[in-house]
Amino acid sequence: MSVVALERVTKKFDQTTALQDIDLSIEEREFVSLIGPSGCGKSTLLRIVGDLITPTDGTVVVNGKTAKQARIDRDYGIVFQDAVLYDWRTVAKNVALPLEIAGWPRQKRAERVRAMLELVELTGFGEHRPWQLSGGMQQRVSIARALSFDPALLLMDEPFGALDEMTRERMNMELLRIWEASGSTIVFVTHSIAEAVFVSSRVIVMSPRPGRISDEIVIDLPQPRTAATREDPRFFELVTRVREALHLGHEVDRAAATEATPA
Amino acid sequence: MSGAVGRRLRDWIPAALVLVAGIALWQGLIAAFHVQQFLLPRPSSIATAFWDDRSELWHAGWYTFQEALGGFVLGSSLAIIVALVLARWRPLGRALMPYAIAANAIPIIAFAPITNQWFAGGLTKSSKIVIAAVLCFFPVLVNTLRGLTSVRPQDLELMQSYAAGEIEIFRRVRIPTSLPFMFSGLKVATVLAMIGAVVGEYFGGALNAIGVLILARARVFQFEEAWAGIMLVCLFGIALYVGVSLLERVALRWAPSTSE
Predict the structure, then answer these.
(1) Which residues of B touch A52 (CB under 8 A)?
(2) Would you say the ipTM is above 0.90?
């Protein structure tokens, strides 16, 4: 059974078509990246899977149910570009937020929070305030929170987009380790080609106006990925392959624009 | 710890010096230009009057402070409840807010002679409590509602992803977000509550109320005593403001910076 199954999903905002006829199926344990230029609707697509945006047309099935039911059943955790931590809560309390809403008993909550902070290597930071942490640490808290209730699916919307290159590369490694340890399926939105190739098992290339899937590239780099992976010739081949797919998508877009413009 | 306290005290030195210099200047200028007592008494005469009348002043001030505090608590609590209701049912809020903002601009104190007549001709505390409460109501309402509705979209999106209900969202996001806004409204309200109680008393009130006392002293040209009463009102007003500020410190101790 697919964890995510999208069929002919279309989203229109007033007159603009943000997404057009998206078909996409994501299997259990996959790490799928959505990559594309701004305006290609990749974040919108992620929010449709999470039932934070309702599609204009098409069907969305998550974990074998409607997207809405999956959201109500808390089948997914989400990580945004901004860590979205509440300043009025300590780090531990931020991680515990979804557990509180789900009505977990206090003792079980505390145990789970401790385990999650250990998973993201923030043991000892539980009583800190979010603003006392660096950007990378904040994002790790946000990942711990998203995984705290052990969802089948993890949705990530450019989670490392605001971090510097060094931190981002370290976070990529961290995320792969967490993916390995948690056994969840990940849908990951990014606009960094190297990041998409490094972390994914499959890259979905999207192009804008209207947002659509223009290509799909299976990343056959061996697991587990390490710092050496970034120097693998196959890594460079795949980076080039994704880059070309992005440019091609862009050219199709430009050609369409030229056609549409009256001479 | 003592180092931090020391620095706190040192931060206050410039302000304290300005106070001392201001009072000295006031005293000096009155002596130098032979200003009449009814225009502006010397600080030293006000201080003497204050000391001589301290018992009577204190009782009158306390009486009026109770009215102001009562009005503050009543008006502010009502405002917070109404803000919660208007934030929960937004169409209602949109329909009523223009009037609340307009009412905020009305000089409500002008109604004091009328509210005095509503309650035993103004001889009880009730009429002053009501005028103070009405004065406090609008700034607290407007600020709290703004706080409740200025939640970051991503904060709400996160709660939606957990399928959190409205009550959960209010408890865990909207109310904490609104607190800094609410407190700025409450601090404005402390000042208004004192104004409401004292000015309300100018239009008639119990004989042992500070507003009545100030008015009576000014009528018989005991200006030092009138000024001493005004000083006491200032002290009570400042105490109320400081009290709310301390409450704010405690409630917002999580914030990156509540000072400055």
Answers:
(1) 157, 160-161
(2) no
